[in-house]
Amino acid sequence: MAQPVVIGQRWWARLALVASAFAVLGFMISLAVSIGEISIPLETTAKAVSNRLFGTAFELSRIHQGIVWDYRLSRALLAASAGAALALCGAILQALLRNPLAEPYVLGISAGASTGAVAVMILGFGYGVLTLSTGAFIGAVVAFVLVSALAAGAGGGADRIILAGVAGSQLFNALTSYIVTTSANAEQARGVMFWLLGSLSGVRWPDVYLAAPVAFIGFAVAMFHARALDAFTFGIDAAAALGIAVNRVRIILLGATALMTAAMVSIVGSIGFVGLVIPHAARFLVGPAHGRLLPATALIGAIFMVAADIVSRIIIPQQILPIGVVTALFGAPAFALILYKARRPV
């Protein structure tokens, strides 16, 4: 297996790495705002943002101002928040379960969250993003409990949790399809199916106001437990021997994972492979210590998702591809590579 690069052992190297990552993220967000059916120069983008944030009076058409602020910037920031949150979920689950293939999509948590959100959306238990998030959170928790129980009943082990996740995904995907086919009209069914593939279409600022704080809270919780996550990578017994309150920490971290997954699924649908691929890329760059791994994972996840959104809008002329399709095109080969390497002794 290839040895990690482990960038950033010295403080100045870490600072340079973080500054570079933020610069790349800022550039990608600017690029995402500029690219589309109507191409907008970066200068115009900067003026539109300045007009709204600082009250400047740069002369811009109302169309350009609206496209930049009301559509593309909110979409790009939502993509960054979702990418960071989903990548963090993968890093947390891989440490807690000691499984390199663990992530919300593979373990069925995303499928459970989708079922909960669709049940709210189609069956009409309330309305609005917050209500969808509540339904998605309940679905995510139920899915994880079911998958964990199934894996434990099958004898436990790293391979059992993945197989249980596959079974759980199929179950909740079937439930989602049942709800859509029996309770949704044709227009609702089309919208839900496109959303389930992962869609940033229709994202607005209220969605960002939900996704960004959830991603930040999840990151803060994970960072607070970074040393505990380091201990969990050596096993539950080792973590307990080091004085970690194993049950309490697992509940907190799994709750944060379910919350982040639910919030993102309720807004953008089920997007796979981000939580699988990004933590491995970050681990290759900065090493396994979670004090460095978690910030790197969040930043790379944000950059990756914004880049995927750009690709989804330009890969087919005059048509927007679901972003989940783009992440799967990159993630599926990476999943196969990780699966191949995981079977070999390190």
From TrEMBL:
Q: Where in the cell is it found?
A: Cell membrane
Q: Where are the transmembrane segments?
A: 12-35, 76-97, 104-130, 136-154, 161-180, 192-221, 228-246, 252-281, 293-315, 321-340
The entry assigns this protein to a family as follows: Belongs to the binding-protein-dependent transport system permease family. FecCD subfamily.
Keyword annotations for this protein? Cell membrane, Membrane, Transmembrane, Transmembrane helix, Transport
Q: What is this protein called?
A: ABC transporter permease
Name the membrane topology term: Multi-pass membrane protein
GO MF term set: transmembrane transporter activity
Q: Please provide, in alphabetical order, the Gene Ontology terms of the cellular component aspect for this entry.
A: plasma membrane
InterPro entries reported for this sequence: ABC_BtuC-like (IPR037294), ABC_transptr_permease_BtuC (IPR000522)
Q: Which organism is it from?
A: Pararhizobium polonicum
